[in-house]
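fyi for ur records
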Amino acid sequence: MFCAVFWNIGGKPANSGIVRLIAGLQRQENADVIVLAECSVGVLGSVLRALNLPGHPPEFAVLPTTSRVRVLIRRTITQCHEFSRHEYYSILRLRRSNRPQLIVAAVHMVSRLEKEASHIDRELELFAKAVRHAEVDVGHDRTVVIGDLNAHPFSEGIAGSVGLHGVMSRRVAGRVERQAAHRKYPFFFNPMWQFYGDATVRPAGTYYREPGGDHTAYYWHLFDQALLRPSLLPYYRDDSACIVTVIGGTPLAGGDLIPDRVVASDHFPIRIRLTC
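which gave:
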């Protein structure tokens, strides 16, 4: 079993209660990899101390990264290093005893408050290219992408062939690749599509924003996403992807399901779990 969680904690300080919630998230989801965005070194150190109980062998370690994502890994991961990097992402190579090797691409893309959507799409295309190069260099494509992509699942940088090429259907993703303009592009499966709308008791996104006077308004946004290559589909189950709204009995949202930034963050955490 492999589990990764991601949370953009919105720069919350260590004395805000966020450390207890992150540690609780790990225990609740039994996460092997914890990826955090907008997380200070101080908060990261406090989370590490909360996870590693005194008098016991250390259960977690900080994986040094040169991007703006923070990563904690469980000791069951025997080897992990940052294989490729940029300011916005760290591509990690994971080895585990008697388990398939994995690539985890942890990302916190540039904010939509700083750059236009078209700029973010181009950055996502460059990120997707880096992932493909890493897969060639490592020799496999058992890849999980997880993080705050600051783009919708239907945006060019995520759904487009030159980008992550993420599709909403496992059956389509199972075709492995698609040809466009006489070139072949590999698929990602993007399970986050299932959370749109009101068909479930879950919120309709991971981030909520009142649009003001904008003519086009989504209100709910699925910026925080987890995607996986078709080679990992045999290990995916219907409940593998999840938007986490409660941690250890503490609701992360009010009655309107909007993230409560006073209690936690303006983003919900997400989880991806695989049976490998």
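The two ends are 5 Å apart (CA to CA). thats all i got for now
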